[in-house]
Amino acid sequence: MDKRSQDDTANEPNEGSEGIPAPDGPANLIDTDYVIGQDNITSTKFGIDFDLHGKVFTISSLVILFFVIVTLAFQNQVAPIFNAMFSFLTGNLDWFFILAANIFVVLAVVLIFTPLSKVRLGGANATPDFSYAGWFAMLFAAGMGIGLMFYGVSEPLTHFGTSLAGDGGAPLGGAEGNEQAAAQLGMAATIFHWGLHPWGIYAIVALSLALFSYNKGLPLTMRSIFYPILGERVWGWPGHIIDILAVFATLFGLATSLGLGASQASAGLHYLFDTPNTNVTMVVLILGITLVALGSVLAGVDKGVQRLSQLNMALAFLLLLFVIFVGPTLLIATGFFENLFGYVKNLPGLSNPFGREDTGFTQGWTAYYWAWWISWSPFVGMFIARVSRGRTVREFLIAVLLVPTLVSILWMTAFGGTAIDQVVSDGYSGVQDAALELQLFTMLGQLPLTTITSFVGIVLVMVFFITSSDSGSLVIDSITAGGKVDAPKPQRVFWALIEGAIAIALLLGGGLTALQTAVITTGLPFTLVLLAACYAIIKGLMSEPRSA
């Protein structure tokens, strides 16, 4: 790939085009005539400024609006279509999603131990833009928030139940009749879905984006990753298609999380205050929280996303500590290490893509999860890239892989372990019999201060909702603005509203299955995109100077 050396940037002003800082110190910029935003349409209508990539924004927005209108207009007709598509994709391509996720994790881990890990994002002399505390909070809140709240109790309980019964949905065939083995297997299967694999996917995308933007001087869009493969053609239709796919994947992956959050918040409000737990309530919640998210969107990353992320992490940490100290404390403390060991022990079997007999588990859970993470990867990856400038590749990969994984294990151990203990030791079946979105609140109902902790849980879901919408709007706006990171704020408002509209359309058009189908459908083509990106990232890192 053609590149020009930039060895003297340490003595130049740290200013890049359109909000992207130039490298600090030695770096190898790609020699291209493309200028960020050169294909954009810049205009002012009714006092509102616009700065959009004409083709990417137009195609993305029109297709999305068409989807929303059709889904809302033909709710009864589209629901069976969503069901059939979900069954077909997960039934035939579960092996593909599992194999692809394995490739991403292996690449991320291997890179840590190679000399390429000495490359610093943003140039050899770059310094981090955020403290470790702020960085970790944004990594975790943007990547996992609503999902941990929704599945923290329900997934361990579900896998425990299927493993104990030994039915078709049990991971690795289950542990029929053995409560202890079923609990360990249930926790291992849960951690498998929230551990190294999702964060390996995020890490590869984020590292690629950061490298080609901050070190190579390309726009902060998905197309930039493919310059080593496509060359200058990346600025034409091949690049347009990549960015459009990234917009679709991001929007539908995000809408799935927003839909889950709305259903759980609605269930929690019904549990506490006996409000109607209906589609109307969920729609009102999505509309209300989307409007709140607009304020954070307009405030930007530093004031909006970072502050909300830190608030959320503080609340989540307090709720976690409460469950640890008020729940079965000794069981949680020992269970953390037992579950970590169980995860490592069962990891080869759980990540095996071929010859599996537990197809109910791989198709109903793993394929959906991996497609969900892959759909989220442009959003989370681009957001992580934006807040990770100044980190070395090794520092970046270790943090992105291990810190969220260990926190996820602790979270699942505390919440899922407490719920399983209520079933096994206390003989309380209510938590297991409750609907998925209600199981968190049912578990908290068996602990002291139920009203307070359940209310905190609802607030957490809502703030995670806002954080996700906030972060997603910033990312999608950057893609549809040709890589500009400081495009006019009305565009971010537009995408925040679109995210809410898609979540509403999918909930009304088929509920959870519709959300899952949207993720699988958009995740499939984007998996191919990310597999090609693995080659590009290695080639890009090999051309960079490395720190001592």
UniProtKB/TrEMBL annotation:
Family annotation (InterPro entries): BCCT_transptr
Transport is among the record's keywords: yes
Membrane topology value: Multi-pass membrane protein
Gene Ontology CC terms, in alphabetical order: plasma membrane
Record field: transmembrane: 56-75, 95-113, 133-153, 196-214, 235-260, 280-301, 313-337, 367-385, 397-420, 440-466, 493-512, 518-538
Pfam families linked: BCCT
Compartment(s) of residence: Cell membrane
Name listed for the protein in its UniProt record: BCCT transporter
